[in-house]
Description:
Elements: H1 3-8, H2 25-46, H3 51-54, H4 65-88, H5 99-103, H6 106-110, H7 113-133, H8 136-139, E1 142-145, E2 149-152, H9 153-178
Antiparallel strand pairs: 1-2
Amino acid sequence: MTTSDTATDPRYPVGRFQRGVEPTPERRAEWIDEIAQTPERFRAAVQGLTDAQLDTPYRDGGWTVRQLAHHVPDSHMNAYTRFKLGLTEDNPGIKTYDEAAWALLEDTRATPVETSLALLEALHVRWVHVLRSMDDSQWARTIQHPDHGPMRLENMLALYAWHGRHHVAHVTHLRERMGW
């Protein structure tokens, strides 16, 4: 898929995650700021949506806005835990999870979106505090991903900054397309 294809692909409204971006101290600071802003941006993206709108998929065959609102804190809770494991253990193995199966669980259908927005906000306060306290040697620490091998924490930071931006854009692009 080319960059121009990605720009029009509703699965990747901000483009695919780009591996290999140099994680300089300046870039890390930008990514931390993005992570810090994700809860506010996601809250703004879903602000004022009706239940029918929350239950609208962001694309054909995609998750609903409601599922996205619950997925982001689910994913970022896992990320926060992975960071803490990486900071306290030597190259710990991490567990993956079936995101699609999680999105179908009853809590995703029945829990108010506000609950997950509040969870995302509280989680990011803690996570950003950890991120802003890390030194260069800690950024070089790794976790062992079962599918991707060792991953440096600074590369995970880039991934999760993109992840928040990616899902906020799913909602904002849907709202633009639908005129909400």
